[in-house]
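Thread amino acids onto this structure.
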């Protein structure tokens, strides 16, 4: 069972009770979890997150969620699965590839050290790295015997908003990934390699949710500029121009129009795919 919403983090025991004869364990769904956090607190100005790249599993609220999942599962004698490493191999740049693989190693060593019984990756090329680390750190079939009674996670831990900066580069990355993912989605592709990461609906959701929240609360970039609709629309048009110049003919214009509607909506749209489904359905009518 994926624990990938902030509400589910508060109900892990209850979920396991309901699934008591049908569950092998719980799993950290990190990207959807971050999106859920932003969505649930979208209207709260005290819950504005920094750049997506700064919201890692070592931040307090995500580390707390991971440790609580381990403790909850092991207390009930079932497996706690770690999160997905989103990196993919970089074939044409050995230096960049080694840096990416080092991030995977650090992620999996943290999971194994904390007590996770297994993990998952976004690309089969990472299986050997994850397997080597878990085989070394967890030579036994699992770590269920580690009850982590030293862990004491409170609601405040799960709700602690990470500190950090909002940068123009982070804003541009959200726009680029959001448009790039939606363009592929409209062509029937649900999982897309972008910037050496495997992006799915959850990461596109993070990007558009962050921008919506930044606009709503007039968050500031690190250089002091206020993030408003005008700034975002200007940067969106720049990203659209770059994407259309660097890619073959696709659906970037439609994707950009949809993304612009999402970040400019008066109330927070529940899921970006709902609007995208409407576009697909209209085409098939």
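Threaded sequence (285 positions):
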């Amino acid at each position: 069972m994926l624990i990938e919403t902030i509400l589910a983090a508060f109900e892990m025991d209850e979920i396991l009770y309901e699934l008591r004869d049908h569950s092998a364990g719980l799993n950290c769904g990190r990207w959807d979890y971050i999106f859920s956090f932003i969505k649930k607190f979208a209207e709260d100005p005290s819950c504005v997150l920094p750049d997506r790249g700064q919201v890692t599993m070592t931040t307090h609220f995500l580390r707390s969620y991971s440790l609580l999942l381990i403790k909850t599962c092991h207390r009930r004698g079932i497996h706690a699965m770690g999160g997905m490493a989103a990196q993919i191999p970089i074939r044409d740049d050995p230096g960049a590839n080694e840096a990416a693989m080092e991030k995977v190693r650090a992620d999996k060593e943290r999971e194994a050290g904390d007590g996770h019984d297994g993990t998952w990756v976004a690309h089969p090329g990472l299986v050997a790295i994850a397997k080597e680390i878990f085989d070394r750190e967890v030579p036994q079939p699992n770590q269920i015997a580690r009850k982590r009674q030293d862990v004491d996670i409170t609601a405040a831990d799960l709700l602690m908003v990470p500190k950090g900066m909002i940068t123009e580069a982070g804003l541009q990355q959200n726009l680029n990934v959001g448009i790039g993912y939606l363009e592929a989605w409209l062509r029937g592709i649900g999982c897309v390699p972008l910037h050496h990461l495997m992006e799915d609906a959850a990461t596109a959701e993070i990007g558009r949710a962050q921008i919506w929240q930044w606009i709503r609360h007039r968050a500031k970039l690190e250089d002091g500029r206020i993030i408003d609709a005008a700034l975002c629309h200007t940067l969106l048009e720049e990203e659209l121009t770059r994407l259309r110049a660097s890619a073959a003919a696709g659906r970037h214009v439609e994707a950009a129009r949809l993304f612009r509607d999402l970040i400019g909506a008066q109330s927070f749209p529940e899921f970006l795919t709902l609007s995208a489904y409407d576009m697909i359905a209209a085409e098939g009518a």
